[in-house]
Structure formats: C-alpha cells, structure tokens
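Write out the 3D structure for:
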Amino acid sequence: MMKNTKSYNNLEKNISPFDSEAIKEATKNLLLAIGEDPAREGLRKTPLRIAKMYEELFLGYNVDPEEIINGALFDVEYDEMVLVRDIEFYSLCEHHMLPFMGRAHVAYIPNEKVIGLSKIPRIVDIFARRLQVQERMTRQIADFIQDILKPQGVAVVIESLHLCMMMRGI
C-alpha cells in the first residue's frame, strides 16, 4: 500500500487491502436481515457480484493519484486556460452508500506546466472511486491539480444527481 501525506489523498489512513470475503459475508448477512434467502436461485451469486462491484467502485483507495500523471508533465510558454468539460463520473455517497453521478468540468491556467489532457478524466475517476461527498471530491481534484501543476488558478465544477436525495428525499 502506498503512503501519501497530501491533504487530498486518504491513502495515509492505511486502509486495509480490499477484503472480498468480508464483503461477501456482509452481503449474505444483509440478505438474511431483510428476510431474503441467500440460497435462492436469483441471489446465490449476489454476494460475489457485490464484492466484485465494490472492488471496482472503490479502486480509488488503492491508487496514488500522482502515479496517474506518469511523467505526462509538459513545459509550455502559454497561459491560456485549459478546460476539460463533461467528464462523466460515478461515486458512492459516504452517508448512505448510494450512487451519485454526473459530470465534472475542470479548468486551470498554466504556469509553465501542463498535463496531458487524458490525465484529467483519470484524476476525476480516481477521486470518484471512493466513498465521497461532492464537496470533498471537488476540493480533492482542485487541490491535486494545484499541487502537481502550481497553475495560476484552478477551477472544478461538479454537477451531479444524488440517489440518496432522489430515492429517499433527503
């Protein structure tokens, strides 16, 4: 497990490796708790499916965002705004573990350095693949770009639909 002390990176919490067996057991117990039969045909493989799904959805805990850059920093002499719009993302709300999804718009004004444009959606994705709240995710993306590029300015706007609000009215 990588360790990073940057404010935008929660790898410093020493999160344990993903425990697929614990997720499967918890899913089975949840099914029992709501009165379902985990041995029923339609549910037999549900614990495995849920474990695989969470492993994908929480990939951001196991990736150091600095590795995404992978040397794709370039010297430039211009200072026109760089903007990547409509970056689709999905995440899970940390309060209810329900999805929220939407689009991120990321812009910065270079200060002698830029990153490859394809890196920006990957940065958004790595922060989205954690239990999140929209406000913190926005800040983490902006802080990361600020720390890596030291631009003249950075802006991140996230528009999203929160299923906890839609399904539960919260």
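The CA atoms of residues 133 and 149 lie 24 Å apart.
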